[in-house]
Automatic annotation (TrEMBL):
GO terms for cellular component: chloroplast stroma. It comes from the Eukaryota. Binds 1 Fe(2+) ion per subunit. Fe cation binds at residues 135, 184, 250, 428. This is 9-cis-epoxycarotenoid dioxygenase. Its cofactor is Fe(2+). The keyword Metal-binding applies. The gene is PotNCED2.
Length: 432
């Protein structure tokens, strides 16, 4: 069983407003996706698992069984979707969404008593088809949301955006993408959207004839970065820049230095060929990538020697020039997934040219965290605020909600909430 194949389970903590005396309320619920409901009723697996069930001849056989069930009307994934809603959470347009890039978003409610029931699969009034990234980017200033989808058939990559009221704008198919890459994340600036096109690709023939996973590394492919105007109506203005060895799964932020320069900050996955099966051999290096649009040049510099991922910034600075990033520190003890053993603060202005880590908090031995999230406290400075995250002590089977001072030199813990249940490993979240 692979972590990426798990059904989505939401975990929420409702805090009393204004520091009131009411207790915090914790809730966890599965996202009631079509897939989850069908398999719950069946008492077992109905759909193949992409990372742990679509391998070799057995994967082909599982696909054939699913096709037969579709043809006989037993299941209807073409209309209802097969997504897990297990990757991230989004607040947009007065709605809450559970996201996974293999399907449409699922909406859910946050009740006054802390409950988080699923509402429905959501297609934005019929304008969103197929699937959507689990990493859309929201512009804090305009309220707009920018997103994309990728898939196994042309167009392999499609870009789109929503106005602040949630109205989806027309699709922009990117015809210059010639195969299905693992386009997990992207970035925006005030005028552009930036797409890393990495070496991890869909390889169905290797699955069938070599018994490998459907996702694999194309060693002959040169990674590149695509730049398209943020409000483009076609892909005529897409520009691609080769960036050998640059394979980020996630981005941290991007901005424009001037009319002809774009800066992207992202953790680059080193030794990407091991990323699906031998995480103990993989490291991430946070890099600053500068793209000179005028001369078509790309330059790169590492920001730290640390093994960091799951980076966040003050949401007010998404797509705008910023100074600080907060990242999870990874320790690759396991061959399957790394453990998040701490959190670091990067300052890529003050520490330009040297290791950019200016604050670090390591969790106690046997305690692992999730993705940090920055919560502003209303101050004027970029790092005026708090880092919040869930942590779990595996020996005690005990989880906490932890609040850290984002401005302090050691990311001091200023509050903790002991939770009534252990929270299993997850991916991304948000603070509302």
């Amino acid at each position: 069983h692979h972590l990426f194949d798990g059904d989505g389970m939401l975990h929420s903590l409702l805090l009393p407003e204004g520091g009131g005396s009411a207790p915090a309320v914790y809730c966890s619920r599965y996202v009631e996706t079509y897939r989850y409901r069908l398999e719950r009723e069946a008492g077992g697996l109905v759909f193949p698992k992409v990372f742990s069930g679509v391998v070799g001849a057995a994967g082909v056989a599982r696909g054939a069984v699913m096709a037969l069930r579709i043809l006989t009307g037993q299941i209807n994934p073409l209309e209802e979707g097969i997504g897990l809603a297990n990757t991230s959470v989004l607040s947009f347009g007065n709605k809450l969404f559970a996201l996974a890039e293999t399907d449409l978003p699922y909406t859910f409610n946050l009740s006054s008593d802390g409950d988080i029931p699923t509402v429905d699969r959501y297609d934005f009034d019929g304008k969103l088809s197929g699937n959507m990234t689990a990493h859309p980017k929201k512009d804090h200033e305009t309220g707009e949301l920018f997103a994309f989808r990728y898939g196994p058939l042309p167009p392999y990559l499609t870009y789109f955006w929503f106005d602040r009221d949630g109205n989806k704008q027309p699709d922009v198919p990117i015809s210059s993408v010639s195969q299905t890459s693992f386009n997990h994340d992207f970035a925006i600036t005030e005028r552009y959207a930036i797409f890393p096109d990495i070496q991890l690709v869909v390889k169905p023939f290797d699955m069938v004839f070599k018994g490998e996973m459907i996702l694999g590394v194309d060693k002959r492919k040169v990674p590149r970065i695509g730049v398209i105007p943020r409000y483009a109506r076609s892909d005529n203005e897409v520009r691609w820049f080769d960036v050998p060895g640059f394979n980020p799964f996630h981005t941290i932020n991007a901005w424009e230095e001037d009319d002809e320069t774009i800066v992207l900050v992202a953790p680059n996955v080193i030794s990407i060929e091991h990323t699906l099966e031998r995480q103990d051999l993989v490291r991430n290096c946070v890099e600053m990538v500068t793209i000179d649009l005028r001369f078509g040049r790309v330059s790169r510099r590492p920001l730290s020697v640390g093994n960091f991922d799951f980076g966040v910034v003050n949401p007010r600075f998404v797509g705008k020039k910023n100074r600080f990033a907060y990242v999870a520190s990874l320790r690759n003890d396991s061959i399957s997934m790394p453990n998040l053993t701490g959190v670091a603060k990067l300052d890529y202005k003050e520490k330009a040219g040297v290791d950019c880590v200016v604050a670090f908090r390591e969790f106690p031995k046997g305690c692992y965290g999730g993705e940090p999230f920055f919560v502003a406290n209303g101050g004027d400075e970029e790092d005026d605020g708090y880092l919040v995250m869930f942590t779990t002590d595996v020996s005690r089977e005990e989880s906490k909600f932890v609040v850290m001072d984002a401005k302090s030199t050691e990311l001091d813990v200023v509050a903790e909430v002991l939770l009534p249940r252990r929270i299993p490993y997850g991916f991304h979240g948000t603070f509302i």
